[in-house]
Amino acid sequence: MKKMYHTILLLILCSLSHNSYAQFSTFYDDYYEQNKRQYTFETEEQIDQFFNQNIDGSYMTGLTKTYTNITKNKKDVMYILGAGEQDSFYIFYYDKDEELYTLVTSANYSNVYFSPRNKTITYTQTGCCGESVFQGNIVLQLDEDGAHQLENYAIVTLNIPESDIQIAEIYNLPKWGIVQNEDYNFRIYPSMGNKYPESDTFFTIFSDNLLGKIKKNSKIKLIGQRSAEDRTWYYVEVDPENLSVNHTEGSTHNSYQNIRGWVSSNFITLSPQ
After folding, report:
1. DSSP single-letter state for residue 215
2. What gap in Å lies between CA 196 and CA 41, rounded to an integer?
3. Distance (Å, rounded) from C-alpha 98 to C-alpha 93?
4. Which residue stretches of 29-93 are H helix?
5. Which residues contact 173 (CB under 8 A, 6 or more apart)?
6. Residue 144: what pLDDT?
7. Predicted local distance difference test score (pLDDT) of residue 200
């Protein structure tokens, strides 16, 4: 259904788009990154018309439009489309020099929070119809130059209590560590084995309690720690580029999303940031 909707979006935008487009720093889901040049309008009325056409006769449940007042020198407007399990938001900036509205950032989301004071937008993403066991968490900073990524990571949602870090276990400030062994086990929860063999009936590739294996000398972000099975475990965030084996590939919500999970502290050396 979403692919069909994106096809309709693309066809309409092609008819409304301008040959030129304003340049902003941007952060998109992969689909918008590939098609961002076509999300350009000459007037606000064209944007209204575009979204209203998509709502009429579709499964969309409604449209909300608001002026975010993020910038002093550029007019900015946010559109939110209701679509049931996952809604979508779109933020456009008006460039006075180009006289164009350009899409600055957009995404499907499960929950979203916009902070006018901090000029941030925070949202989560979950798979439609159980297609992913990951929840994406993204925080963007918005300014006159566009949208800048502050956080972009995925966590496992397999309903395994041990996989979630508790508030008391989180460091006041993140630390950094260097992996000393090749193919270091990156786990869903802090255990050397798999205590929940029936927990993952959809993605059986996680049956060994492994998100993947981390390359030697990788620098990883340490968020907190826990003692279990006579050892210390770090709750970490890992760039997928640092995985020699990546069982999460294709399951996260954008291709550059970091993964959070657990590693044994035995072969991790603390490092300055």
Report:
1. P
2. 51
3. 11
4. 30-35, 44-55
5. none
6. 83
7. 55
Tokens of 72: 């002093």
> Can you list the residues of the chain whose pLDDT is less than 70?
1-37, 56-61, 84-85, 127-131, 197-205
Query: Six-digit token pair at 156?
Result: 């496992």
Structure tokens at 134: 């990951």
Query: What are the tokens at 65?
Result: 């439009």
Distance CA 265, CA 233 (A): 5
Q: CA-CA distance, 223 to 132, in Å (whole number)?
A: 24
Residue 82 region by backbone torsions, left for phi larger than 0, else alpha for psi between -120 and 50, else beta: beta
Express each pLDDT in 12-34 by its tens digit: 333 333 333 344 556 655 565 66
The C-alpha angle with vertex 113 and arms to 49 and 138, in degrees rounded to 5, equals 95
Tell me if residue 30 falls in helix, strand or coil.
helix
Query: How many CB atoms within 10 Å of residue 161?
Result: 8
Which residues, including other chains, have CB under 8 Å from residue 126's CB and lie 6 or more apart?
86, 110, 132, 134, 135, 136, 157
Q: What is the CA radius of gyration of the chain?
A: 21
**Partners of 94 in the beta sheet?**
75, 101
- Residue located via tokens 């566009």: 146
> What is the per-residue pLDDT across 69-84, written as a single tens digit (0 to 9) for each?
877 777 888 888 887 6
Question: Is 119 within 8 Å of 141 (Cβ atoms)?
Answer: yes
Q: Which of 150, 153, 185 is nearest to 262 (CA)?
A: 185
Closest C-alpha among 36, 41, 109 to residue 77:
41
For 135, the token pair is 């929840």
CA distance 242 to 246: 9
pTM recorded for the entire structure = 0.81
Is residue 238 within 8 A of residue 152, CB to CB? The reply is: no
